[in-house]
Amino acid sequence: MNPPCARCKKIVYPTEKVNCLDKFWHKACFQCETCKMTLNMKNYKGYEKKPYCNAHYPKSSFTAVADTPENLRLKKQSKLQSQVQYKEEFEKNKGKGFSAVANTPELERIKKNQEIVSNIKYHEQFEKSKGSSAASAERRNSNDTNEYRTQPERNPVYQPQAPAHQEPPTPVFNPPVAAPLSPPPSTGKRYRAVYDYSAADVDEISFQDGDLIVDVQQIDEGWMYGTVERTGDTGMLPANYVEAV
After folding, report:
1. What is the C-alpha to C-alpha distance for residues 32 and 42, in angstroms, rounded to an integer?
2. Is the Cβ–Cβ distance between 11 and 4 less than 8 Å?
3. Which terminus has fewer CB within 10 Å in the chain: N or C?
């Protein structure tokens, strides 16, 4: 038995039947509920089992809810529950330390810039300390050299008085022979190398196990500045490669 049309209530024959929205329609009766435009299976939109075109399809809108005492109470209760849950999660994660941060290209760039700035500041401080230490060492060496070069005072030679009828002998003066000057003793701390080390930069020095490092100055916890007594090279050296003498 042929079913009736959902719009005109007449019998729908198979040649003109449209089965959509759980109903049967004539092809000519399958129209928009608002503008009566004829629709097909590709351009219709169903709303409450009624066909609509795209322009007149009903749009759902939200209604405003009044702030009744019951709604205010539920809002306050949900807010308190959210705060309690936040505190519980905070206490659980309190002793777990910091969360891992992904190494993004931006973080890698910032990290590299910080390393470059740190190296520049380190070399500036090193050059300042190097200049001050060199100036003080030069003044100390000049003072020591002046002390060693001081000549002893000449002792007057006693000349006995000759009789009046004899000519006095010609005095002969023999200047004292100065002792050879020895280099001034090294000042500052002295360390002995316990490992071999090859310089990794132009401002560092190389040494071997057992070499004596003199005039050592502490730069920071990991580096020192001194002179290798065997080679005479002066520069930076790692603090964990030497021990105090």
Report:
1. 13
2. yes
3. N
